[in-house]
Design goal:
Length: 777
């Protein structure tokens, strides 16, 4: 089955030949645009954000952060803060009873800085007081004697610089070798690319509430996207057993990464344990920019070798990722970058060197499409250069090299999942182009630069660019991706219990649809998430659609068997001969026909199940190994208008074709793709957290521009390919990361086409988009 969109943009499914489409589709179940359960609460302002939490006897927290990117701490004097009226506690690294450091990959990040601060905004101390203003004033009253040190902010200098951390400056090095390293092509193009620091910019404030428990433990209420990992990190720092710490997930207003800063939760828990009172902290936007992880800034050097017909022979690449002060998930991001350095193309030979290094820049970590976005911008820039060198159209050079199922990645792994890259490329190239703008007064708003822009219509050039992107699904390199779910049915109501956090990805809606389709129960509730439930893992890489959705499906099928067995036994038939649809149970021969409610007859049925995908393996010393469970692909054509005198860019249209495996919720899928394209547009044109010698400049939403509705182009989803991945539950693939990865490269390609400039830097700066280089006096 393949999917398309109608003229109005609504996602529709086109049945394969010989398959009759249902005349009256069900109002629920898989494949239906079921409304999100929390849509009304978000629209009405009753959604339970962490910043709105309250408790009796509440204290307020504030954190003192370093104003320097690198400095030695001579002393920390908290006397003035502790003596202020209303201050209940002040904690520093000396008050951390357990592990002084934490981290998702490597525990190299201190809860509070000890002997040295390594990035601007690193926490030094935390204060609890009876009023938020008192807490902030007390934090400001803490006197820290710094010896300011020279910050290392250029990742290229990190190799020779003195160690910035006891673990050294090099986090990981991957020297990938595939095929013949000495192979050469008849033609060769090379390029240098620089990708900026994109921030997750979460919608809601990063906040939390910690409440001490009578047993000496603590409960932490926060918008966590990985509650069990956060619990384990907190317990280790507090010197407690994991069962003494409970993380309760409040409403997550939306997440494009691991949005919360675990350091906030650690500060809250320590203060709650010290004071014996509930403690709340709501981070300012400035604190969010300074504390949480960002997309890795990356430097990339490429050489592409090809024959005279444009067939790729070899790719050489050097990838240098700036991890900032601590490791976080940089090793994972580097593995993705190196593995996908050649893109969704057939490359017989590859030599790729990848490094992730520590600097004194802001911390980098997981963000949607990490690693894959950076290399996509580079390898697609190379494909444009190769096309220009050979006199081929940009889409043609790509068509001659696209990957398909059965081909090899440069890691030596065979692509066993559906890889309809050629079909995706064909869909976007054959789609009609948008009309050219009319040079009339009422159409002036269409000029790059927006309403009342200074540009002239005669200086505007239209460019059409292409990009193909790929991402991996689930964790990689041996990560255990198990998830557990319980499904209960009582009366006419079903309940799903699973620790998969709803971050805006639609898992809660999907869980309802799975149970509705499997059990024929209309009313399905998804329980809130806390760490008393079995773990479900991180909310990233589409894992909850695959792993947690798979666990829900298995549990629902077990309940289905419990429901049908008595009926099957009574009528002397197998349960496989009974079906459930629209709340009714019927047999294949029509003899049996009853409702689900009648079959339940007041009984409560429940089952718990796990889902664990097939194992993967770490990359070896030459970058070889079956590191990924599955892959997803996307093709985007970008049409952009560029003022070649001012360098302003207006993206007119993004045409998308995507490999989705199966459409589970058409409306939800469309929203996810549109959001991903828009986030990628931000990385292409405006989003860059700027620093000066490690100091974050303008850490707020006036200095950090995000795309708004006025910046978003027309997004046309022209094809959704539904080649189901047989190893994935439902056959569905991750939906939102791959358009984020692909769209920045497509925008850069369109600007190249309009200006003839190389465009090797993201976000694209105006001086890079003018027709001729800017002359400096």
């Amino acid at each position: 089955m393949s999917g398309t969109t109608d003229g109005a943009g609504a996602v529709t499914a086109t049945p394969a030949a010989g398959v009759q489409a249902p005349v009256e589709p069900s109002s629920h179940g898989l494949g239906v645009s079921l409304m999100s359960a929390d849509a009304a609460a978000k629209a009405e302002g009753t959604f339970p954000y962490a910043a709105d939490l309250w408790a009796e006897g509440l204290l307020w927290a504030a954190v003192l952060r370093s104003p320097h990117p690198r400095a030695r701490i001579r002393s920390v004097d908290t006397r003035h803060a502790t003596e202020m009226p209303g201050v209940r506690a002040v904690v520093t690294h000396e008050d951390v009873p357990g592990d002084k450091g934490y981290g998702r990959g490597i525990a190299d990040r201190p809860v509070f800085a000890m002997d040295e601060v390594r990035h601007h905004g690193e926490p030094i101390a935390a204060v609890a007081a009876d009023h938020p203003d008192t807490a902030r004033l007390a934090a400001a009253a803490i006197v820290v004697d710094y010896e300011v040190l020279e910050a290392v902010t250029d990742p290229q200098l990190a190799f020779e610089a003195e160690p910035l951390h006891p673990d050294g400056n090099l986090i990981r090095h991957i020297p990938l070798r595939f095929g013949d390293a000495e192979a050469m092509g008849e033609v060769m193009v090379e390029g240098f690319y620089r990708i900026g620091r994109q921030d997750p910019a979460p919608i809601g404030a990063e906040a939390g509430l910690a409440v001490p428990r009578p047993d000496g433990g603590v409960e932490i209420y926060t918008a966590s996207t990985d509650p069990h990992t956060d619990r384990d990190l907190a317990a280790a720092s507090f010197g407690l057993e994991p069962e003494q710490v409970k993380v309760v997930v409040t409403g997550v207003p939306g997440a494009t990464a691991d949005r919360e800063d675990p350091g906030i939760q650690l500060s809250l828990g320590l203060l709650a344990l010290r004071t014996g009172c509930p403690v709340k902290l709501a981070a300012t936007r400035e604190e969010s920019f300074l504390a949480h992880a960002h997309r890795h800034p990356t430097l990339l050097r490429y050489r592409h070798h090809a024959d005279a017909e444009g067939k790729l022979v070899k790719v050489e690449a050097q990838i240098l990722m700036d991890a900032g002060a601590y490791a976080d998930t940089s090793a994972e991001a580097l593995a993705a970058a190196v593995s996908f350095a050649c893109g969704p193309y057939v490359v017989p030979h590859a030599v790729v060197e990848g490094w992730a290094v520590r600097t004194n820049n802001p911390p980098s970590g997981h963000m949607r499409g990490e690693g894959a976005l950076q290399v996509c911008a580079a390898y697609e820039g190379q494909m444009d250069k190769l096309a220009a060198h050979l006199g081929l159209e940009p889409d043609e050079i790509r068509r001659r090299n696209v990957m398909a199922t059965g081909d090899l990645l440069p890691t030596g792994q065979t692509v066993t999942c559906p890889a309809p890259v050629a079909e995706l490329l064909r869909a976007v190239t054959e789609a009609p182009l948008p009309e050219l703008p009319k040079d009339t007064p009422e159409a002036e708003w269409l000029l790059p630069g927006g309403p009342e822009g200074a540009g002239e219509p005669g200086a505007v050039r239209r460019g059409v660019g292409y990009a193909l992107g790929m991402v991996h699904m689930l964790g990689a390199e041996g990560a255990d991706e198990v998830s557990t779910a319980t499904v209960k049915v009582s009366g006419s109501v079903a309940t799903v219990i699973c620790a998969a956090v709803e971050t805006g990805s639609g898992f809660s809606t999907l869980a309802r649809q799975i149970v509705q389709e499997t059990l024929g129960v209309d009313e399905v509730h998804v329980a809130g998430v806390d760490t008393d439930q079995p773990p479900a893992g991180r909310a990233c890489h589409g894992r909850h659609t695959w792993v947690s959705g798979g666990a829900v499906e298995r549990a629902a099928k077990m309940v289905r068997t419990q429901l049908l067995q008595p009926l099957a036994h009574k009528f002397g038939m197998s349960t496989e001969l009974l079906q459930i649809a629209d709340g009714k149970i019927t047999s294949y021969d029509g003899v049996l026909s009853t409702t689900v409610a009648e079959a339940l007859d007041g009984k409560e049925l429940w089952a718990t199940a796990q889902c664990r995908p097939h194992p993967t393996e770490p990359l070896d010393e030459t970058g070889q190994g079956d590191a990924f469970v599955g892959l997803a692909f996307c093709a985007i054509r970008c049409v952009a208008d560029v003022d070649i005198e001012l360098g302003t860019v207006r993206v007119v249209e993004m045409t998308v074709a995507q490999d989705v495996g199966r459409v589970l919720n058409p409306r939800q899928l469309r929203v996810r793709i549109e959001a991903g394209v828009t986030q990628g547009l931000g990385a292409a044109l405006m989003e860059n957290l700027r620093t000066t010698r490690g100091q974050v400049r303008h850490p707020d939403l006036t200095g950090y521009a995000l795309p708004t509705a006025l910046d978003a182009p027309d997004i046309r989803i022209v094809k959704l390919v539904e080649d189901r991945d047989v190893v994935a539950p439902f056959g569905a693939k991750a939906a939102s990361a791959v358009p984020v990865v692909t769209s920045p490269a497509a925008v850069a390609s369109a600007v190249r086409a309009a200006t003839g400039r190389p465009i090797g830097r993201l976000p694209i700066r105006p001086q890079a988009a003018v027709a001729q280089p800017v002359q400096t006096p």
